[in-house]
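S.,

As promised, the zinc ion run. Input:
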Amino acid sequence: MHSDHTAGLTSVWKHPIYCSEVTGRILHHKLEVNKNLIRPLELNVGHKINLDERGVVTMTVTLIDANHCPGSVMFLFEGYFGTILYTGDFRYSPQIFQEPPLNHRKTIDVLYLDNTNCNPNQILPSRQQATEQIKNIISSHPMHDVVIGLYTIGKEALMVELALEFKTWIVVSPDRLELLKLLELEDVFTLEKGAGRIRVVQHSDVNYANMKHLNRIRPTIAVLPTSRPEMKWHKENNVYVIPYSDHSSYQELSEFVDILRPFSIEYLVKNELCEGYFGDYVNPLNKPLLKVNIPIMVHRFMNSSVWCEPYSSRKAAQHPTVRSFHHIPKGFVFENPEENTQNMEDFCKKEQHFCVNSHLRLTRMSPKRPKPFHKKKKECVKKGYSIIPKCNHHTMKWYMKAIY
Ligand SMILES: [Zn+2]
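Predicted complex:
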């Protein structure tokens, strides 16, 4: 769970959070999210979740290991809207197609894809190969201290492997140690400065000034395990940028999409080139896309306050973790929260319009609706309003904000 996955999550958060058990632990201990709101779900099995008060409309959600950072998962949603696979940040491994639920080639209607590394010219080694590169660098600097620049969480497996290889403690900060304890890893981390040759620092602390300062005291090299590009000052200051990435390489993405062959893809990082690269794998039979209509009961439920009450106060009958692999009927009644009768001027003036589950709503609207959203949006712009899209690829939401 990286910090960019949890923007806005604090002790005052009021809505239920479905997540892996590890993420649940981190959410509570690090961000002090109310325990009653955390709904940890077992991985690789379907969990039925009620989408209305009586449980007439349900969906099944299955969590799949995203192979990204501790606790990270993909979400597979199956329901009246079809089948949606939301990868979040992930590193592809062929293993994913050898275990449930993706071993039985599911038909994916919409794939939300982490395309962070969508560049055919960027060759990324596997994490194991990158680990070997890092080991070689450290081995060839036997008299140097080593600092490794990391984000708050992630790459713990690399740390453990380096500790075992070089038979050294890994020196970390108190905050990081607290987090590492939640992950129940091997006991190779210490707070004691000087106790080990390798020290973990924040990624941003590996900078020009700090490297100059460290090397004045003792010969020091820094390793940045990241797919981000190397800069000129890195080379000149003993900083080694190694493409150890927790995101899929372009080649891995191609293989993943080629096997899945989804009907449509939503790219989580805006990159028009990607659409061209993977276009051949999308909807190969040119089937018409599903028209998604939100059942009225679901609408009512989502607009009520029931679903955001703490879990402990809800009825046992609404337990979200009932397993279900039953066939889920498809068929929809789409309704737009913005009534068509609404005055156009009021529509544009409204401070924040509905959140848009991007592609789904924009392209699968009922033909009965006289004024689809994007047309309304254009009209607002014509009237002199500006529309600000705020796309947060981790929350699947796209807020359209019209400012007067
Ligand atoms: Zn991440």
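The chain is about 25% helix and 20% strand. Residues 308-342, 351-372, 388-404 have pLDDT under 50 and may be disordered.

- D.
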